[in-house]
Amino acid sequence: MGSTDGHTHQRLGRLGGIALVNLATLTWATNMVLARWLRDDVGPLALSAARYAIASLLLAGLLQRRPPTERHLGRDRWLLVGMALSGVALFTPMLYLGLRFTTAVNATLINGLGPLLTGALAALLVREPMSRRQAVGAIAGLIGVIVLTWGSAFSWQTMQSVAGNLMVLAAVVLWSLYSVLGRQAMRHRSALSTTAFSALLGLPVLLLAAAWEIRVLPVRVSPTLILAALYIGVSPGVIGFLSWNAGVRRLGASGAMVFYNTLPLYGALLGHLFLGEPVGLSHLIGGMLIVAGGLWAARGPS
Fold first, then answer.
1. Which uninterrupted H or E stretch holds 82?
2. N or C terminus: which one in the chain shows less Cβ crowding within 10 Å?
3. Percent helix, strand, coil in the chain (nearest 5)?
4. So where are the chain's domains?
5. pLDDT score for 298
6. Angle 238-87-292 (CA atoms, 0-180°, nearest 5)?
7. Could you read off the pLDDT of 225-234 as tens digits, one per residue?
8. What one-character DSSP code corresponds to residue 88?
9. How far is CA 267 from CA 13, 31, 144, 169, in A?
């Protein structure tokens, strides 16, 4: 009986992790669409700083309700600093900079390489090898990304800027590193504490960089920009990060990154709805492969 309850609890934990990481990738897909849409109104550093200024205020308020041990830096401070640098100070500006030169659909498609990169980094840095099931799921998801790319008008052969695509690829590597470090940090603290400290530690770097950028790329302030910045700060900045880190805690870095492949799926759909980019049969087939690969990998170890 106890064994059955344990398996049920484990399965529910995995399902909860699946829901959390999918919520995160959905919010991040909206983030990419908005960043592409706002590229002529605000620079990547200023938008990143606005995002994390809003997110940090909200996260700091939530953190005040946590136990005292959650509100202080501990022995894992260098893990949190690494997360702040990789996932906050570098990842977001690099992504937004890339989106100035390439499309939102291209960016989300490139992000489909995240699971393989995270699995490689997890194995290299923390000896968290990908299981056979996770590897198969990641490969299925990658095939889905290739199908999406091949059938899109914005294919690899017709990408507008190689530089922008390479920037997005660099951002994916940084995010993979953030996920691996987050997995280690959350062995000792909650997802909320981990997310809050990584944002708070990375914010000063972004504010200094944004102050310099505004002198070169002035911000075109408008009600639309303010509302968009508020959304980016609350949804991708707080809800997305908290959901992702909570999902990583349940599924592991490699297991969560398998579902990172849903980002191209959501990105293609949102790009079609809000940017008028086409969605055809290849998107449907690729999306099915992405989802199926994620579900297969999340069933547990082979």
1. helix 77-83
2. N
3. 80, 0, 20
4. 2-297
5. 56
6. 75
7. 999 999 999 9
8. I
9. 26, 9, 13, 16
